[in-house]
Amino acid sequence: MAASDRIRVLLADDHRLVRDALRLVLESDCEIVAEAADAESAIALAAKVRPQVALVDIGMPGMGGLAAVRHILQAAPACKVLILSQYDDEEYVVEALGDAGAWGYVVKTDAATELLAAVRAVHQGRRYLSPSLAPVVLARLNRPASQPGADGAKLTRREREVLKLVSEGSTAKDIAQRLHISPKTAEAHREKLKQKLGLRSTAAMIRYAIKHKLVRLD
Asked: Which domains does the chain have, with CATH numbers?
């Protein structure tokens, strides 16, 4: 393939070994123009190098992959973002392809066989989902509109961001700085989350976040 035909890709994953493996999978059709180990670096690099496709790990340090998607699209509007995740949960898939604005979602266990096809698809303006996600999507489509999700509570994007930060040990001041809101607003989000989820303590919020895979234990 001529150099001019190669797809310009940004890799964003906090594990160097994973990025090296992704590079090997993609190098036949793609030019890796930049690599990032956290969300903030991915956003800055997207603005600088203007990749055609950004491959973003949903669980990166910092603001996280889903929040990063929105900022990457602001920094490089022509870029197509493809989420790479170890999670096949309905909530992640729906939020990634809906509110966040990603063009595709690949589960890491499918990456070896599906990733190159996924990058080609989103580059051409087509949505892409890992084949293993078909049951997740079908379950979503078949669920009555009035039936809640498995956790019984629907959290907004901001509530999920706050819960993730709380579970990582962030104080109200830390949350305010990370999300560019006031400490008073950050504390209000914490209290609203406790009420909404029926939780009484920070420890309970952390257990909830771990149970629903909003944070990673590695």
From this structure: 3-141 (3.40.50.2300), 157-211 (1.10.10.10)
